[in-house]
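The instructor's notes for this session suggest beginning with a concrete chain rather than abstract definitions. Hand out the sequence below and ask the class to guess, before any prediction is shown, which regions might be ordered.
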Amino acid sequence: MFNSVVRKKAADTLCRLIWESLTGRKYRRLRSEIELRCYGPDGTLKWEESGPNALVDEGEEYFIKVAISEQLSVPATFYLGLSQSSESTLGETVTLSTVNEVSGSGYARQGINSDGTDWTVSQDSGDWQAQSKEVTFSASGTWSAALSMFLCTVASGTSGKLIATKDLSQSRTLYNGDQLKARITIKAQ
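After discussion, reveal the predicted structure:
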């Protein structure tokens, strides 16, 4: 049985094929990717990974309401956080209130200001993209295991909007002195 992420990717591929064959124009959608690197207390690279993440329904709604109808405004800061749940468990209808956030000494969501300093907007192969600055999570104790990363609109709590989630390749635990460096790229493609 297909999970919701696989169904969404299949539906997107079908829509792209139909759109391009009927209109002769390129099918566009927002895509994003998260890059992660974890360093131990001595500065050695422990692991790294990158890959596409999924805009959840709430994130898609958020972009439309900000860009088209102005029903919502751009927050002063976006935040990256870590979750103990996987994207496949969360599904595309997940909201910030259902994210099971990582805990541990020193854990906090990391802010990316909504400005031209923390985000670089540019063209990549003819497509527009916004790439965030690199943020650093610093563990001062052992954290609960993370299965995914997320982008949201609030520093803590569940009152904001969940924009995107990204499964990690495996369960990841940060230990005292570890640093996790992360950045997100959002691209209209």
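Then share the key points. The chain is about 20% helix and 40% strand. Residues 4-23 form the longest helix (20 residues).
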